[in-house]
Amino acid sequence: MIINHNMSAINTYRQLTTNNSNNAKSLEKLSSGLRINRAGDDAAGLAISEKMRGQIRGLDQAQRNAQDSISLIQTAEGALNETHSILQRMRELAVQASNDTNSTTDRDEIQKEIDQLTDEIDRIANTTEFNTQKLLDGSKKGLVKAENAKAEIELNTKANITGVSVTTSAGTSATIIITRTNDSSTGFAAGDFSIGDPSSTSASLTSGTTISMAGGATITLSGDDLSKLAVGESITISIKAKVDVSNNVEDAFSMQIGANSGQNILVGINNMKAEKIGVRGTDGKALDVSDYKNATAAIKTINNAIETVSAERSKLGAVQNRLEHTINNLGTSSENLTAAESRIRDVDMAKEMMNFQKNNILSQAAQAMLAQANQQPQGVLQLLR
């Protein structure tokens, strides 16, 4: 029998310390509701759950981004709704002015309202904004985005606009096709031409009848020149070529709708000023309804403008519907990822309560046994009597 080292007491004390430590950990988990309170609880689980938390917060913010984007689109679409109403009124006035029962004085009064309505279209385009950003002035109309492959670029331009150009790069050839966009328009014929293997190709529409390409290739529109097209009529230039994305500048609203980099959509809103939709000439004057001929031509021009605004509203409506589905999908993804993160990080309260009770009982038992173990060396005293 030895007394310097009470091995029974030492062993019991070690068990008591372990049980108390486990009991403290159980109390911490039960009080926090988390299975992982520090890296030592589960190093791998902590790393995984932190990555999931980043994704969850990103998804939640992406939902808010999409909702803000819908608000922006609704602001623009609401302004275009008013533009539509103005154009409908202008068409009504043009139809009225087309009737020769109106005197010159009557048409002058109609012209005054036409002028004011045209100014209002410009005011709406110039002042409509969301969070201080202009929406309808053409500053965010955007350019075509190509994804590392072939892309078709379409440039629609009114015949009275000069200096519009398209540049392609990293392609072996380019073809420009001239087509009529209005069946009733006359004075030019469709045609096409191509050039071969330039390092950079630029096509520009100028004020004449010729569209030229770098390198000297040209095409001339037959018949009357472009300047004789009615206001609102247009031609379409379609260029099919390989596009180098690195040289493709984007100028549109970029809407971040995902938790990671690059998960965004680009939304461009075209210039909705009176001149751009065709109801104001390059000279700054509104449509002329002073006689039968001009008034009937104005009806056609306003019809084209209404179609232009309708197309823009339809595009915005389609994007809004897309964003609504995006919000639903982001919500589902966030919910599922939260459930996965919870399984890793959250504590099972019932199971941990069971562990706490077990460790508590073991601690009390170890305390009692430690008292008994400390009594054992006292038996040596009997040998001294």
Automatic annotation (TrEMBL):
Q: Which Pfam families match?
A: Flagellin_C (PF00700), Flagellin_N (PF00669)
Q: Which residues form the Flagellin N-terminal domain?
A: 3-140
Mainly localized where? secreted
Sorted alphabetically, the keyword list is: Bacterial flagellum, Cell projection, Cilium, Flagellum, Secreted
List the subcellular locations: Secreted; Bacterial flagellum
Example GO CC term: the record gives:
extracellular region
Alphabetically, the GO molecular function entries are: structural molecule activity
Q: Where is the Flagellin C-terminal domain?
A: 299-384
Q: Which family does it belong to?
A: Belongs to the bacterial flagellin family.
Tell me the function of this protein. Answer: Flagellin is the subunit protein which polymerizes to form the filaments of bacterial flagella.
Protein name per its UniProtKB record: Flagellin
Q: Which organism is it from?
A: Desulfitobacterium hafniense (strain DSM 10664 / DCB-2)
Its ancestry begins with:
Bacteria, Bacillati, Bacillota, Clostridia, Eubacteriales
